[in-house]
Specification:
This protein is of the alpha/beta class. 32% of the residues lie in helices and 21% in strands. The chain contains nine helices and twelve strands. A six-stranded mixed β-sheet has the order 7-8-9-10-11-12. A four-stranded mixed β-sheet has the order 2-1-5-6. The chain has a two-stranded parallel sheet with strand order 3-4. Helix 1 crosses helix 7 and helix 8 crosses helix 9. The radius of gyration is 18 Å and the shape is globular. The structure holds alpha-D-ribofuranose. The site of alpha-D-ribofuranose has 16 residues, from strand 1, helix 1, strand 6 and helix 7.
Length: 289
Amino acid sequence: MLGSINMDLVTSVARRPAPGETVLGTAFATVPGGKGANQAIAARRAGARVEFLGAVGDDVFAEQLRSTLVASGVGVDRLRTIPGPSGIAAITVDDGGENSIIVVGGANARLTELDRRDLEVIAAADILLCQLEIPIATVAAAARHARDNATVVVLNPSPVAELPARLWADVEVAVVNSGEAEQLGAVVDSVPHVVTTRGGAGATYRGPDGRHCSYPSPRVRVVDTTGAGDSFTGALVAAWGRGPETALPYACAAGASATTVLGASASIPTAAAIEELLRTPPPKTSRNH
Ligand code: RIB
């Protein structure tokens, strides 16, 4: 896993303010997050062995960010400290469980070099999973090295950005949400496997032979959708070796489970919780996430 790690500053509010408006919030919490860290923990909890390649700053958040990965069983040998602030995300969650997020990259944005030991970890891995909360040049260099060493590159291109064609050529699996799919358009057509998440409607898969399949999401009571996509992606990668027919339903259950708890990393389900949700009949009064 190569990606970001942030401290999420989460404000709960009945409804999100309009531009120029002040509203009273109902709660505040700091929760370790970041798409990279969330997906690393999700893959680990779903049963994969995970090494995290990333960076924290030397500020008050750094130690808690590092220890959250350690407590989850994610390897941190390649987590470096880069002087300056850690990454943060200012998150507002409304009563409907919907969120808005502003990410300030901090140390993630200063992760511009991969050293020999990073490259060895990438070459030895089965899968390299990346997102776009660190510099694109770093992602591209890692993907190139992965491809050269037969490591499968999975890219969650979030937040969406324009990427070099060379990077897309190294991607074997793209995981996007429906908004990202629309923004990216035809550039993902060349990627052999494309997984598109559709919130409460589940996910779709398009394979290298052009085959399309849809997978529903279990119905749950939604509290907070933050990090649901990260739980989906981590679980998908953990189960990818079992084939898309198994990995997608598993990932849909992980994503749904993550919406039932407030906070990104706090809500990431274990393999046991995912499997239990897959076996559980839907509740009587519920709405999809
Ligand atoms: O995907 C959710 C994550 O996005 C949050 O944890 C936040 O840190 C941002 O990176």
